[in-house]
Design brief:
- The structure is a single chain.
- By secondary structure, the protein is α+β, with helices and mostly antiparallel strands.
- The chain has a domain at 81-161.
- It is 46% helix and 14% strand.
- The strands form two sheets. The chain has a three-stranded antiparallel beta sheet.
- Strand 2 (47-52) and strand 3 (56-61) form a beta hairpin.
- Helix 4 runs antiparallel to helix 5 (107-144).
- It starts with a helix and ends with a strand.
- The chain binds zinc ion.
- Residues 22, 24-25, 27, 149, 151-152, 154 line the site of zinc ion.
Length: 161
């Protein structure tokens, strides 16, 4: 094999390259993380509802957990979003605050408390989510440029053009 005659280079994964040929084993059997992820992930029909503060509730096609080991290794960063519990906690606690105040025969106070509790929680959760977004976007652009060698498993970043 030709590569065995070459002087051994130290393993430097993540070194930016601008070739799709593996610099470690010279294999051309390489894929971008995105290609490898999509190839190794079979889309199921599972649907779940997510909440995006900008767009509101939306039903999105969820991928079932039927993934190859490779797909798990090259999966994209997780988008910061409201958790399932948070989506329900905000209106739930706002309603509780309203009911407590309304039980004192004070509907105005109830509406005030409900709105205050609801918007306070919305603010706190939304801030947590949006603080993670720049990190996520950085990771995502890195992921989009990541490649993996299907023969030796080396990963590297494609140099920006
Ligand atoms: Zn390789």
């Amino acid at each position: 094999m030709q590569s065995e005659n070459l002087p051994r280079k130290p393993a430097t994964p993540r070194r930016p390259l601008n070739s799709t040929v593996c610099s470690k084993c010279n294999s051309t059997d390489t894929q971008s993380f995105q290609m490898a992820y999509e190839a190794g992930t079979s889309s199921g029909t599972l649907q779940f509802t997510t909440y995006d503060p900008d767009a509101g509730f939306s039903a999105s096609g969820g991928k079932t957990s039927n993934q190859t080991f490779l797909a798990q290794k090259v999966q994209p960063p997780v988008r910061p979003e409201w958790t399932f519990g948070e989506v329900f906690a905000v209106p739930f606690l706002a309603a509780i605050a309203f009911i407590i105040a309304a039980s004192l025969n004070n509907a105005v106070l109830g509406i005030f408390l409900g709105l205050t509790v609801g918007s306070l929680m919305w603010y706190v959760i939304n801030r947590r989510v949006s603080q993670k977004k720049p990190i996520y976007e950085k990771e995502l652009s890195k992921w989009a440029r990541s490649w993996i060698c299907l023969r030796c498993g080396m990963t590297w970043l494609m140099r920006k053009h």
